[in-house]
């Protein structure tokens, strides 16, 4: 009697009625043509551990692997072609069992039934790969990396809050601490403008320069009297020092007022120099000094 053929349904899963029939395993995307001449076959555990993939599983079982896209077309005399394919599969290079055992040592501890289930069930195979040492190490590394990134994110969030606090403190300082200084400057500026409105700066500058020249002339006269012997050194020092001090102060004041007065004129003038910093020595006068 002729052997019944396996149905080629569109459902998923393995559809096999008898080991001496031709079947298709649509779930793995390959078709296994089992011929009656191969007889019954029991997979070897070592060979099963060597081939964890779907095409390799077919080679382990000694089956013929063809493309799932090829249409099923039975031939009247399959024995010569089947023998040729079997000899070709035997000539293919086989992976080393020791390398697979070194990478997947758990395969050596499984029985033939467990290995057969591992080869035919996708979920079992996925759980096996999920529990391998490499997968465990990858998940541990990912977990450590995620924890490190979370710690860096927390540090950045804390720094952002600190920066926000500093900005608020700066705004408070600008609005509160700087306000008294600004008010004092405005008051001094208003007072200076009022005084300048009441007095003529040109006349005041002329008087300063005139007093500085008078003090310098008197100091020179005292120097000549000292050289001529008309005055004692003690009396010379008592009169000469105040004259030179008055000359120096009036000269410095004139140097400060003159640029400001020139900048207020319609024609303009050089800008007023900035005031010297606190504790700095007085600027040298072009009229000389002590």
- For the largest beta sheet, what order do the strands appear in spatially? 1-2
Q: Would you tell me the structural class of the helices and strands? A: mainly alpha
| β-sheet strand percentage | under 5%
- Largest sheet, strands/sense/barrel: 2 strands, antiparallel
Dominant shape = rod-shaped
Helix content range of the residues, please? Answer: 55-70%
Unreliable residue stretches: 1-52, 54-74, 285-290
Domains, number: 3
Strand segment tally: 2
| Cα-based radius of gyration, to the nearest Å | 54 Å
* Number of H- or I-type helical stretches: 9
Biased composition (Basic and acidic residues): 247-256
Region (Disordered): 1-22, 69-103, 247-290
Biased composition (Low complexity): 80-99
Organism: Micromonas pusilla (Picoplanktonic green alga)
